[in-house]
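ugh finaly. both done.
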Amino acid sequence: MDVDFSFFLLVASVVTGIIWGGYLLLLKSKGETFDEKNEPVLVEYARSFFPIVLIVLLLRSFLAEPFRIPSGSMMPTLLVGDFILVNKFTYGIRLPVINKKIIELNEPQRGDIVVFRYPKDPAVDYIKRVIGLPGDKISYHNKKLTINGTAIEQVSLGRYEGVGQGQDMTGAENLLENLTGIEHSILIRNGAPTVEFDYIVPQGNYFAMGDNRDNSNDSRYWGPVPEENLVGKAFFIWMSWDWQHKGVGFDRIGTVLK
């Protein structure tokens, strides 16, 4: 069990609920009625914060959770400083903190941008794109993908111009990749070292890669993502802030991710 913000919210909800509820039960046992004027300070705080903390816990656990992009591994789709929303229920309803799925819903599709718990350190959240589904045969040679024997089409969009904290990717080749029906941009640094492989994705696992192909720590290096590590699907940029570029990136706010 990881001690994270969800854990803090759960504890805060339980503690404030017990304090407030216990006080009401105490009044009832004495035959007294609730009066704000005579309310102890601790109970007043508990009564005020309990509904707020509970609502935030429910929203983050079952609907949507905000994340900030800290690195350039998903450039050019996601930039350093983007703030995104992640759909928490699309891959099934999970209990907060223990992350146990209680209701089955959809499964990840090839091309989805997913947030997941890093298999080597579940306390850390990663974001990558789903490249391979359970049972898929993935090949990566000469910086090109082949999935189940089908070569994935790439069309050059020219030289990439990085900005702000992603400026070091200036000069990379920007390619439009058609991931069996899902088109998205990727970056390739021609001449940069890479890893080549042929791999079959195990059942119950997903193969994930960053769109910034030569600058991403992903399944090529540490293996597939187990289904139980999934957090949710990224779907929306609600804020973008890069102090090294232009501050608030108003042109990115409201972007629907694909």
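ok and the 2nd:
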Amino acid sequence: MERAKRKIGARGRTVIGLTGPIASGKSLALGLFVKEGALGISADEVSASLLTEPACYNRILRKFGSDKILTNGLLDKKKLAAEIFNSPAKREWLESLLHPLILKRIHSLITRSKKKISVVEAPLLFEAGLAECFTFTVCLAAPDKILEARALKRGWSRAQYGSRIKAQLSAAEKCARADIVLENAGAARELAGKIKFIYRFLKETGRR
């Protein structure tokens, strides 16, 4: 996709881009930011909602074929994911379709909200060239063995985990590109304390 050229927030708002490798705790972190009072947006959830809209649905169906839908007429996201992660060209096509629409939807959600601090969970934030869209970026981190163990606990096979890892930047590269790195190898309360500190600092200092 064409790299984003503008921020997705509005004047006077802080918009945090939240990312990290697979199983690093992105959804947990997003929930903790919301608990503190931020507007929380999941790029994956926005993407999922767009997949049900006729314009996207019909284009994807024409590209990938009718075997990618379930009997209830909804796209089979697991089959679709399996195919695009094994084909860089198909993945690029789908991202070029969805990313501009996702950014537009996120921008709308932020500008319509009265909250001054928003957090957008975006697993492929750096891969999609979206860093400049945000006030600053936060990357979650944990040792590779912990990340893999968490992924396997979710029911993934090692092969599935490996293919997803290969489709993304390495964990080290994500952390190197981020403005802030939050270690999440321990208990949830430890991550909660770190997020509470960041949120309260932003709120008290009026960081923009």
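summary for the 2nd one i guess: The chain has one domain: 14-205.
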